[in-house]
């Protein structure tokens, strides 16, 4: 069963939601039958931070609140993250445009490294305080997850996967997604936000049960359609 997750690397709730989702999946007996696909989403696509302004300055400007209030907002998020086993350090966090980071995630998908790339980018942004809009940093992350350095440089210095990122965002608009993280289960059910582990488990269990039943019905319909003569790898029955 496929789970598609729209998420932005500069969204702390996306990081928390990822961890809750993973904890939910890990406890399920059918975890190996879950296919995860990460989809691109940008919370602030026009934003750039060449001067490395702090997250407190960024929030103060974007939310129209005093610096102290911005710090209190981030403390609440840090506290929530700690319950998920994450240590987010907002003091050294660098707000960034995430378009190129999303392109790197699409490149990683070619080699089944998409989830690892997502994790490394979250870690770089929220824990290590690295600038994930810097191409040198992104190439270093690509190497860390096992991608070829030359290919990563070629992709990031050009425009490969740009359309793939834009299509993900276009698709999110068609689905009515207005915030992230947003989890779509088998294109039938949706979960928004960094929900508790139990909420993820309940939703995944329900969706998986229906998906499994649909798979069985499809197979039975196919097998019992008619009694016409047929051929297989062993030849034809006449």
Task: Please tell me about this protein's structure.
The protein is of the alpha+beta class and 238 residues long. The chain has a single domain (2-209), classed as Glutaredoxin. It has nine helices and six strands. The chain has helices spanning 12-26, 55-63, 67-83, 99-109, 114-127, 135-144, 149-157, 162-174, 197-223, and strands spanning 2-7, 35-40, 182-185, 189-192, 231-232, 235-236. It is globular, with a radius of gyration of 21 Å. The mean pLDDT is 93.
Features:
single chain, 238 residues, alpha+beta, Glutaredoxin, four-stranded mixed β-sheet, two-stranded antiparallel sheet, 9 helices, 10% strand
> How many structurally independent domains?
1
**Helix coverage percent of residues?**
40-55%
CA radius of gyration is 21 Å
Strand proportion, as a percent range, falls in 5-15%
CATH topology value: Glutaredoxin
Read across the widest sheet, the strand sequence of neighbours is 2-1-3-4
Structural class: alpha+beta
Unreliable segments of 5+ consecutive residues = none
The CATH homologous superfamily name equals: Glutaredoxin
Q: What's the overall geometry?
A: globular
Mean pLDDT: 93
Q: Treating each run of at least 4 consecutive H or I residues as one helix, how many helices?
A: 9
The biggest sheet amounts to:
4 strands, mixed
Number of strands: 6
Order of helices and strands: EHEHHHHHHHEEHEE
Distance between the termini: 38 Å
CATH architecture field: 3-Layer(aba) Sandwich
CATH uppermost class: Alpha Beta
